[in-house]
Amino acid sequence: MNVEYRWLLPSVLLGDPDEGRPARRSTRDWIVDILIFLLTCGLVWLTLPDLEGEGRALRMTEQVLGGLSCAAVWLRRRWPVTLSLVATVFSSYFVMVGGVAVVALFTVAVHRPFKISGLVLAANLVTLAPLALWRPDKVLGPLWTAVFGTVLALAVFGWGIVVRSRRQLVHTLRAQAQVAGQEARRLERERIAREMHDVLAHRISILSLHAGALEFRPDAPPEQVARAAGAIRDSAHQALQDLREVIGVLRQPGDDPDEIVPERPQPTLADLDELADESRRAGMDVTLTVEAGQAASASLGRNAYRIVQEALTNARKHAPGAPVRLSVKGGQGEGLTIEARNKIGWPSSIPGAGSGLIGLTERAELAGGRLEHWRTPEGDFVLKAWLPWPT
User: Fold this and answer.
1) With contact defined as beta carbons under 8 Å apart, do 24 and 80 qualify?
2) 40-54, 121-135, 151-165, 365-379: which range is least confident on average?
C-alpha cells in the first residue's frame, strides 16, 4: 500500500506499524499454531450438520469459505485485527466461518490492548443479530442462538484478557528482576570502588612516604636505604595484589545469580594494631587507643578499619610528619566511636581529589551511622565517626 494513502484506512484495520512484518516463530509458537489450526478445523467440521436442507450453492459457498478461513488462521499473528474483523463480517451469515471468528477474537484479546480488542468484541456482538435472524440454530432458535453466541464471545474474550494480563505480569516481573539485578551489580561495583580507593590510597601513600625519605636523605646509611626500599617493594606488591583481586571480581560475568564469589578475608577491629604498626614503620607518629570488645560483627569491624585506614592516609597526605592520635571506643548498644586528630601541616606531593572523605561519609551512612570532620582553632584536623553496634 502506498504510504500517502494509509491515512485513509482506520488504524484499527491496519493494526500496529510492525504488524505486517514477518516474525520468526519459535518451537512453542509452531506447536500452538498447529493446535489452533486443528481446533479451527474441528469447529468448522462441527458446523457441517447445520448445512442440511440448504441449497447447493449455499453449501458450496460455506465449504469454500470454511476452508479458506481455516487457512487464514496462519495469518492471525501477523494481522490479528484484520483477520478478526473480516471473519466477523462473514460470520454474520456464514456459519462455517464462526470458528475462525472465535479464534481471531481470542488472538486479538491476547495481543492487542483493550481500546482495540474492545471494538472487535463489539463488532462480534453486533454481527450476532443478523446471524440469529437469518440463520438461527435449528434447535436453539433465534433468541437462544443470540444468547449462546453472546456468552461464547464474552467467555473467549475474557479468557484472552486473562492470558494477556498474565503475560504482562510475567513481563513486568522479569523487567523488575532485571532492573534489580542491574542495581545490585551497580551497588556492588560502588562498594568495590570504595574498597579499592581505601586500600590503594593507603598503600600508595606509604610507598610515597618511603620514597620521599630516600629522596630527602640520599646519604642515609645503607641499612636504612635497604629497609626503605624493602618497604617500597612490599607496599607496591600489596597494592598490585589488591588491584589484581578487584579487577578479577569486576571481570566476572556474574550470569548465575546463585554463584557466590569468594572474597578475601576482610579486616576487623583486631587488625587495627597491625595497621598502626605499619604506619609507624613508615615513619609516622601514631598513637592508637582501642577500648572496644572483640565481639563486633564483620561489617562493623570492616567499616571501622577502613575509616581508621583513610584517616591515616589523609594524615600522610596533608600533614606529613605530624603526630596522629586515634581512638576507637564503644560497645554493644552504645555504638562505636572513632576519632582521629592530627595537626594541619603542609600537604605532601601526593594528589588528592577529596573523594576519600566523601566515600567514608557514604560508608558510614550506609552502615546507619554518621561521619563528620572539622578544623579546630588550635590548628587540628578532627575526623569523627559513629557506627551503630546492636546488641
Assistant:
1) no
2) 40-54
Number of residues that make up the chain: 391
Q: Tell me the CB-side half-sphere exposure of residue 384, using CA atoms within 13 A.
A: 10
User: Parallel, antiparallel, or unpaired: how do β-strands 324-331 and 286-291 relate?
Assistant: parallel
SS3 32: helix
Looking at residues 37-66, what average pLDDT do you find? Answer: 73
User: Max Cα separation, the chain?
Assistant: 122
State pLDDT tens for residues 149-170: 788 888 888 888 898 888 889 8
- Hey, what's the cell of 289? 587507643
The CA distance from 374 to 341, in Å, is: 10
Domains of the chain, first to last = 3-135 (no CATH), 269-391 (3.30.565.10)
Q: Which three cell numbers stand for residue 376?
A: 579546630
**Element housing 380 (H / E):** strand 380-387
For residue 34, give every residue at least 6 positions away whose Cβ sits within 8 Å of its Cβ, in sequence order, or none.
none
Could you write out the three-class secondary structure of 240-281? HHHHHHHHHHHHCCCCCCCCCCCCCCCCCHHHHHHHHHHHHH
Q: For residue 342, give the DSSP letter.
A: E
Read off the DSSP letter of residue 10. -
At residue 42, φ and ψ (nearest 5 deg) are: -65, -40
Residue 118 DSSP code: H
Across the chain, mean pLDDT equals 76
Exposure of 257 by Cβ count < 10 A (0-12 exposed, 13-18 middle, 19+ buried)?
A: exposed
- Asked whether the beta carbons of 370 and 388 are under 8 A apart, the reply is no
